[in-house]
Amino acid sequence: MAVSTKRTQGLADKHFHYCPGCTHGIIHRLVAEAIEELGVLEKTVGVCPVGCAVFAYDYFNCDMIEAAHGRAPAVATGVKRVLPESVVFTYQGDGDLAAIGTAETVHAAARGERITTIFVNNAVYGMTGGQMAPTTLLGQKTTTTPFGRQSSVAGYPLKVSEMVATIDGAAYVTRVAVNSPKNILRAKKAILKAFNVQLKGLGFSLVEVLSTCPTNWGLSPPEALRWVKEKMIPVYPLGDFKVPEDEV
Amino acid sequence: MPQVFFENERCKGCELCVTVCPKKIIALSAGEINSFGFHPAVLTDGTKCTGCGFCFLVCPDLAVTVVREEGGNGESTDEGE
After folding, report:
1. Domain of A163?
2. Residue B70 predicted with pLDDT over 90
């Protein structure tokens, strides 16, 4: 019998507006497939960020809310507390989560909110045109660090997963990448696990996904995948930073 | 034999599938242009396809469908690094 790859029910039949080669599309698919496979599409509420994924509410087939910049975990907290049976996730970029929304993220984790955060880290502000983000690598050229990010002026890259893993309320914190088929499959498993942690009520779960921005990095999409492997992963090592004690 | 279908109107010609294909049998169409102005991906030699599905996994725009026999090899020559 022939088996075919299927377009997930978790995504609407709409073309993504993302630039060619942007891995947002892959991450959207992984999140949507995870929601569909867990059979919770009807009771899932997603919260969109401000950033390139600001239109994600057009793409996911579940209920979606658009939050103010950085405030997605706060909105998700409200939804989860009013509708405890729902599955709530936030989908945030590094400008949203690691800059303006750091406080919301840290305190949602500290309160142990039973929500899942998908953190898309591409080391740059994409939507606004490629400015330096807190996660920009040292030496990386952006429009606001034209000679490369220098620690003496602009500090150091923020390692969100390591930081959130120190918080007691966080149950599952992991970092994955989507730069190769192998890593994409691992990312899928991590996202499924994060939703399972939420379904079991164990606490806050965060999946950091290393993503690409070919447009603002000034690279072709295949070069951008290599850049993730060669430059980003050494700074942002992949792996689990916190896993629940009773393994899910 | 496994089959791969590309939805031309969804393809943005990013070449990620071209990069990950272990058999190197995907290329961007030289002559064809879709309505967004991109050269969509095409198979150059479908007979070599193993149905590994890497192109489906990596496509950011869900433009790829892979059909293969259940229990068919679907094996890849590398681990998808």
Report:
1. 24-148+155-242
2. no
Residue type, B67: V
CATH architecture of B3-67: 2-Layer Sandwich (3.30)
- Tell me whether A10 touches chain B (CB under 8 Å): no
Give how many domains chain A has, as a whole number: 1
CATH number at residue A140: 3.40.50.970
Each domain of chain B, given as residue ranges in start order, spans: 3-67
A135 within some domain: yes
Please indicate if any CB of chain A lies within 8 Å of the CB of B1.
Answer: no
Supply angle C-alpha A71, A187, B53, rounded to 5.
130
Per-residue pLDDT of chain A (248 residues; tens, 9 = 90+): 677 888 899 999 999 999 999 999 999 999 999 999 999 999 999 999 999 999 999 999 999 999 999 999 999 999 999 999 999 999 999 999 999 999 999 999 999 999 999 999 999 999 999 999 999 999 999 999 999 999 999 999 999 999 999 999 999 999 999 999 999 999 999 999 999 999 999 999 999 999 999 999 999 999 999 999 999 999 999 999 999 987 65
Q: Do B70 and A180 touch (CB under 8 A)?
A: no
Triad B55, B57, B63: Cα angle to 5°: 65
Q: Which residues contact A106 (CB under 8 A, 6 or more apart)?
A: A163, A164, A167
Give the ipTM: 0.91
Residue A15 domain-assigned? Answer: no
A57 touches chain B (CB under 8 A): no
Q: Does B57 touch chain A (CB under 8 A)?
A: yes
Token pair, residue B32, equals 């064809």
Residues 197-226 of A with CB under 8 A from B: 214, 220-222, 225
